[in-house]
Amino acid sequence: xxxxxxxxxxxxxxxxxxxxxxxxxxxxxxxxxxxxxxxxxxxxxxxxxxxxxxxxxxxxxxxxxxxxxxxxxxxxxxxxxxxxxxxxxxxxxxxxxxxxxxxxxxxxxxxxxxxxxxxxxxxxxxxxxxxxxxxxxxxxxxxxxxxxxxxxxxxxxxxxxxxxxxxxxxxxxxxxxxxxxxxxxxxxxxxxxxxxxxxxxxxxxxxxxxxxxxxxxxxxxxxxxxxxxxxxxxxxxxxxxxxxxxxxxxxxxxxxxxxxxxxxxxxxxxxxxxxxxxxxxxxxxxxxxxxxxxxxxxx
Length: 299
Known about the structure:
Layout: H1 11-20, E1 29-37, H2 44-50, E2 57-64, H3 76-84, E3 106-111, E4 115-116, H4 117-141, H5 144-153, H6 159-163, E5 174-181, H7 188-205, E6 211-215, E7 219-225, H8 234-243, H9 249-252, E8 253-258, E9 261-264, E10 270-273, E11 277-279, E12 291-292
Antiparallel strand pairs: 1-2, 1-3, 1-4, 3-11, 5-7, 5-8, 6-7, 6-12, 9-10
């Protein structure tokens, strides 16, 4: 009897995310979602059995665009269809060893800002021309290994198009702040303190309805409307710590990163986040699903 993956765990949560966060894409735009297996969620025995590496795998991308040609139809049915494509027969998506992926290591990501398809096409053709020139050079050199190598690469050129979607943002509608809680501190009390601090800082700096706090497995993603962020993103990072009732709260935070900006982490590392790739509310993230903490702010 066939077994199926279950990737949409709460459709109501996904619907809210669509209604309040996802804007209708323009004619040349798409939204990308991605199904991934996280190696850190696998035991050593599972890694050996599945042959999935420690860093995991990006398994399958889906692109979501308006339908109906010039009519440019857009609704939740069109959007959710891509997510339900992941609810497939487990024999359709197999690990390198030929067995199904353990669901407790799977996560469905979404890029919250639309992609410019024209830029992706141009990038892909540039990549194609580079490979074509390399193949021609190998032929002229009479290098059989080089010819074989580039002949293998040439048919895969257009796979590059999907891989570049996260880096060719069309409109920056949302900026993402990613807070990771230390693994040993991931208890309900700490998550509650973090959510309160994020909401207080968000209301003070952006106003209700201009930011969404998304609870994830390891922390929070806070999406802020770009037009509301008219100052250095690090101000928000500092304000969150100042709004925390517990003076020890900063010690619970492993990393707090401003999307599309650069700042020094507590460890002194220069970190840059650009893609606004987040675990999708309502969809699988390991054995649970992310959800929006402050829905009432949008009413």
